[in-house]
Predict the 3D structure of the following.
Amino acid sequence: MIDFSYTIWIPLIPFLIFILLGLAGHKLKPRLSGLIGTSGLALVTVLSYITAWLYFFPGEKVGGAYQKIISSNITWLQLTDKLHIDLGVLLDPISVMMLIVISTVSFMVHIYSLGYMKEEKGFERFFAFLSLFTFSMLGLVVATNIFQMYIFWELVGVSSYILIGFYYEKPSAVRASKKAFIVTRFADLGFLIGILILSFNTKTFDFITLTDPTGPAIAQGSGITFMGLSVMTWSMIFVYMGGVGKSAMFPFHIWLPDAMEGPTPVSALIHAATMVVAGVYLVARMFPIYVFSAPVALEVVAYVGAFSSLFAAVIACTQTDIKRVLAYSTMSQIGYMMFALGVSGYGGHDGLGYMASMFHLFTHAMFKALLFLAAGAIIHAAHSNFMTDMGGLRKYLPITHITFLVACLTIAGIPPFSGFFSKDEILAAAFHHNKFLFAVEYAVAGITAFYMFRLYFNIFWGEETQYHHTPHEAPAVMTIPLIVLAIGAAVSGFIPFNQLVTSDGKVFESEIEWAVAIPSVLIALLGITIAFVLYSKKTSIPDRLAATFKYAYKWSYNKFYIDEIYLFVTKKIIFRYISEPVAWFDRHIVDGTMNSIAFITQVVSFKIRGFQSGQLQKYAFVFISGIVLLAILFIYLR
Amino acid sequence: MNTGIPLSYFLVLAAIMFFVGVYGFLTRRNLITILMSVELILNSVNINFLAFNRFLFPHKLEGLFFSLFVIAVAASEAAVAIAIIINIYRRFTTINVEDVDVMKY
């Protein structure tokens, strides 16, 4: 038995750094605090890789399956004899994989930020919060029970809120951070309700008990029904609502594009690679329950994921802010992962979708973090977020150009880059499960290739614009993470996920299904070709197309007016017809009652204070009159 | 032990003394006079004590002792009251009770 008890330090190190930098950061030199944060993360990364090595290679398997190991655990809150909330570290294939993803991306982002955030106000504050985020995210993935997950779930929400609003002097950043927090918090309400229903029915929070396919939790699920669905289904739908909010699925996606107001490294870390996939991770963590006792909820997962991926891909085609294009692309790719979980079964080759989802999560983290970091380098060079202000940058930014191209090829699914493998697995799983959804995702693959290369050609090719300063390549501290992530994005497709991360922990055989893979490569190439024709040189075709499909273009450009619908519902309906009457009631009835009591007391006391005259004989007179009155009263009342 | 004076005489005298005292207490403005009015009230009570003791329980002495007790208390009260009055005079240079009215709203 390998001793994994040191893994508690993986989340604890970033936490200690957060405390150190948060309390003493302003006294240290900014550069030193940046180095402290980065070196701490380096340590975490090393520990994570050691853990992954020990877990997957010398680690024991029971019956050919990777075991779930609780390496440390403390009881945090004893509710009843049986029901208690623990804090601990759970190691299983997906949590170990997430450790790798988080620590790698976070480490790269730390290094990158040393260059990107240089000379910024609040440099040490930035690193403190990055550490807080890393701590929360690591705590989330190693959670041993659903309540611990919920705690860290909220912590990542808070750190995301803080980091989106990092430039707190900018009103748009403050608005975006509030929006992100409120939308995700609203969705988390569903998560909490789901947890309560789930734990009420199963009497446990513990993941191992909950997700044991032969365990009592799953057997209990289908007993009670409510409105035609079992309570387990309801609870899983509610839990999924939390995942929808955090992973920016439709209809809770509205916060993600606005979250791009945060610094670019934050977008890369939180809003591309780690936090937004927490929803996928959540569904993957609860997967046996979805499969065995809530298949309807799993259908919901599949349809929401597929719809979100199509929806976001269509919007991404018309946006001009490069970070927003990437944000919608993130939403689309997460939709892919959700969808893959939704079409998966449990165990063996049926669990292909599960494996594909985790695989895509891994590759996506690499290439999307790379895309965002490259976008940061581009924005640094061009001093603008809009692709209309860019063009012909390939001469000035050779390294960024190559790495960006690698990432675009990866996300488009061109072999031998990693995106090809993971996307192929997802499409294969869909092909066996649901032909309609397969067709949708197949189309999305083409659209993805189109919008990514629209972005690529617009930035690096096209007409060269006049820049105020000649754009120059980012310093080495920023380009090295790009190169590392590009290598990761290029080669991580060769990791044999079917032997490592599977739904039941057992190895299964999977091969590339060329019947699915070849058409998907072809449609990606088609998308790239269209983008090449339209955008590689300055032509009038895109404008004419936009004019021809005026309404479709307008709807997509305005993100299908979802933000406006939200504003209409909240401002015009909820605020006006619920909040305003409630506020009126509070201001006039509740406060009014209290104020009038105080007012009456004041008026009366002003009127009667003349009695306190200081005249001894007046007091005596009143006193004696009272006695006489009482005496008369007693005499006559006898 | 019949002295020939009936009880009602004592009671009427005591009542007159009592109300004279009360009237003086409420109307006089000089603190010394107010103190004298208080003494009148106390002494009217003493007369009542002695009269009732005489007519109801001639062989007992409770009333007598009580009136002695009241006299002693009245004497010490007068001492304290005069000390207070002297202090008031030093502070306000007056012993007119209407001018001593700082203890108000």
Notes: The mean pLDDT of chain B is 90. Chain B touches chain A at residues 22, 25-27, 97-98, 100-105 (CB under 8 Å).
